[in-house]
Amino acid sequence: MNFQIRQAITSNVQGDSAAEFRDTVEDAIERGDEHLLPGLGVFLEKWWNTSSPDEQQQFTEKLSKAFQN
Fold first, then answer.
1. Is the model's pTM score more than 0.70?
2. Cα 5 to chain center, whole Å?
3. String of b and e for 18-56 (b: at least 16 CB within 10 Å)?
4. Burial of 13 (C-beta count, 10 Å sphere; 0-12/13-18/19+)
5. Which position among 21, 34, 58, 61 has the lowest Cβ density within 10 Å, counted as fewest Cβ atoms?
6. Cβ atoms of residues 31 and 68 within 8 Å
7. Which residues, in sequence order, are CB contacts of 45 under 8 Å at separation 6+?
8. Residue 1 has what pLDDT?
9. What residues make up the domain containing 44?
């Protein structure tokens, strides 16, 4: 079986509104199920690839701080 997780996740959320994406992310975090982590990873990858260098820098600075606590 040739299962492409990126394609599956993209198909499942294509056309979702910003509110729907927020709900999806918050639900995944609230559940805490590890099987949802690949989906969040796909979201991060899509965001990263469409973000400016400044946005990426801000994100990595916040991420670094979050893991220092």
1. yes
2. 13
3. eeeeeebeeebeeeeeeebeebeebbeeeeeeeeeeeee
4. middle
5. 34
6. no
7. 6
8. 47
9. 5-66
Q: pLDDT digit string (tens) for 8-57?
A: 999 999 999 999 999 999 999 999 999 999 999 999 999 999 999 999 99
Residues 12/15/18/23 CA torsion (nearest 10 deg):
-30
One-letter amino acid of 21: F
Number of structural domains found in the chain? 1
Which tokens hold the place of 63? 């991420």
- For the record, the structure tokens of 59 come out as 């994100």
